[in-house]
Every structure is written in structure tokens, then in C-alpha cells.
From TrEMBL:
GO terms for biological process: base-excision repair. Zn(2+) binds at C14, H27, H187, C191. It comes from Devosia limi DSM 17137. One of its GO terms (molecular function) is DNA-3-methyladenine glycosylase activity. Gene3D superfamilies: Hypothetical protein, domain 2. This is 3-methyladenine DNA glycosylase. It comes from the Bacteria. InterPro entries: Adenine_glyco, DNA-3mA_glycosylase, DNA_glycosylase, Tag. Pfam families: Adenine_glyco (PF03352). Keywords: Metal-binding, Zinc.
Length: 208
């Protein structure tokens, strides 16, 4: 992703946004803002799986290539990928070359199709796990935030996804997904995004 203009350095942000322009852009424009697009929800749950054991900025810098090789995270297209695609992706230096995570993405696409058939959309399924806004201290680092990032709701989501056959969806991964997709507002009290996200969540028509 190319960032044409550096985000305003004078704004107060969550500490984990740091000084990197790409990270700040992600924090300002995406993180915590409610998402109801099945494609974006599927992409995020997959990329959170790839992030497991790594830093999110590593995934963010490779996100465009992930989108290219996984057909824009079009669920039916990913579900149709096979062994030849897996072998090809294992040679692609633009992504995380982890066989288990690549296989899990294809597996999860098939599981996502089943969720769509049962609930009408991924959004209708995931938004059942929405939780009240969290009120985090203003001095939490990204690492500290992730260490705290496991809740009853994320454990319930993780358990249900795994029961349905999803892979790489532990409770911490699920909470990171919930934070990013707006199922909870985890921006700190001082962050300029917090009020914006609260307003977006208040005006959101929940998928059913």
C-alpha cells in the first residue's frame, strides 16, 4: 500500500501506532471501524492467522501481495484453490511462506462458505459476537494491548469457529480480529479515533 500523504503527526493516537506512516494510516482509517463486508471479514480473519507469531506490520506490508495471490480474498475462488496453488505460494517471497497457514486459508474459505449458507453472510455470523467498548489506558503499547486481548467473547468465537472447522483462530487471534473489524472499540480514551469509531458503531445497521 502506498501512502500519498503522511498522517497528521499532531493527532493523539493509540501508542501502538508509532511513527510509521503505513501503520498510522492503518490505525487512522481502518482499525476499529465497523466492517460488514464478507470479503473484508474473511481477509482479516485469514491475515490474523498469518500474523500469528509475527508482528502485524509485517503482514500489513505484505497485504497487497496477499490480496493478489488469494484472488482478493474472494471466498469461492480461495475455496477452489488446490495443491498446485499451495506449492506455488510456498515459493512466493511476497507473502508468509508457511504451509500450514496457506492450507488453513483455503480450508477456512470452505468453512466460510458453510457459514454464509447457514447465516446468510459472514457479517451476520461475526456480529453476533460484538462486545461493549473496552476502555484501555492511554499508555498501552501494541504488545501490551495484544497480551490483554482475550475476552469471553473472543474465546467463544474461537471455540465456535474451531468447532466449525476453522484453523489458526485462537482466542487472541479472534480478539485481534474483533478489535480491527469494529466488533469492539479498543482505541484508548485519548485517541482521536475513539469518538469517531463510537459514532460509526452507533450508526451501524447490524447485519442479521
Amino acid at each position: 500500500m502506498s501512502i500519498a500523504v503522511n498522517p497528521d503527526p499532531t493527532l493523539v493516537r493509540c501508542p501502538w501506532a508509532g511513527d510509521d506512516a503505513l501503520y498510522r494510516h492503518y490505525h487512522d482509517r481502518e482499525w476499529g471501524r465497523p466492517v460488514t463486508s464478507d470479503t473484508r471479514l474473511f481477509e482479516k480473519i485469514c491475515l490474523e492467522g498469518f500474523q500469528s507469531g509475527l508482528s502485524w506490520i509485517t503482514i500489513l506490508r505484505k497485504r497487497e501481495r496477499f490480496r493478489e495471490v488469494f484472488h482478493g480474498f474472494d471466498i469461492p475462488k480461495v475455496a477452489a484453490m488446490g495443491e498446485a496453488d499451495i506449492e506455488r505460494l510456498l515459493q512466493d517471497t511476497g507473502i508468509i511462506r508457511h504451509r500450514g497457514k496457506i492450507v488453513a486459508t483455503i480450508n477456512n474459505a470452505n468453512c466460510a462458505l458453510a457459514l454464509q449458507a447457514e447465516f446468510g453472510s459472514l457479517a451476520a455470523y461475526f456480529w453476533r459476537f460484538e462486545t461493549p467498548d473496552e476502555h484501555r489506558p492511554d499508555d498501552l503499547s501494541w504488545e501490551a494491548l495484544r497480551l490483554l486481548a482475550q475476552t469471553d467473547a473472543s474465546r467463544a468465537l474461537s471455540k465456535d469457529l474451531r468447532k466449525r472447522g476453522f484453523k489458526f483462530v485462537g482466542p487472541t487471534t479472534c480478539y485481534a480480529f474483533m478489535q480491527a473489524m469494529g466488533l469492539v472499540n479498543d482505541h484508548t480514551e485519548a485517541c482521536f479515533c475513539r469518538a469517531e469509531v463510537e459514532a460509526e458503531r452507533a450508526n451501524l445497521v447490524r447485519p442479521t
